[in-house]
């Protein structure tokens, strides 16, 4: 029986991924490079340390290893300076409805703690029974670690959890964790989400799924 619902943040609850792309593009633009937005979207779920080499390869620009941590922190700070955080319509209404049905809910994001706190204020964070960010796990998505950690904190078996994702690596992480995965078409089309168990157009549709009737 399903007892927990685990939510990704960027692209599921908040519409922020375009600003992550702009921040990466800004940083590489300083060196004359350009990042493609589809690359950022397809690799969403990796932490910044893992995305950086991919973007270096795409742009042909090498950031020396000793400068990479600073480069990432500058990217994160620039992101927070430009992002205009907007929640997807019905996101918190759906979360609260699921909680009222007795489900435990967790936020499982690859973004840094500061970025999560910039996206969700204290009251919004309080909607979740547990929150884990990319700073807290050594292996990010597509590894199952973030979702398995959340399930453990909620005292649930993986088979008792449903994951709500928007990107291929997040779906892969959920499946690697042995969890049912619902994908939402917010940032990518169905053609990129086929490995999910179910695909919805928006987060509000969650409450109508028989699986989550409670």
Descriptive report:
There is one protein chain. The chain is an alpha/beta fold and 214 residues long. The chain has two domains: 4-15 and 85-212, Rossmann fold; 17-82, DNA polymerase, domain 1, CATH 1.10.150. The protein is 41% helix and 12% strand. The chain has nine helices and six strands, in the order βαααααβααβαβαββ. It has helices spanning 17-29, 37-42, 48-59, 65-82, 91-100, 113-119, 122-125, 145-153, 168-176, and strands at residues 4-7, 104-108, 130-132, 161-165, 180-184, 198-200. A six-stranded parallel sheet has the order 3-2-1-4-5-6. The protein is globular and about 55 Å long. It starts with a strand and ends in a 14-residue tail after the last strand.
Task: Calculate the terminal CA-CA distance, rounded to whole Å.
Answer: 9 Å
Give me the CATH superfamily of the largest domain: HAD superfamily/HAD-like
Number of domains: 2
Order of helices and strands: EHHHHHEHHEHEHEE
Q: What kind of oligomer do you see?
A: single chain
| Envelope shape | globular
Tell me the β content: 5-15%
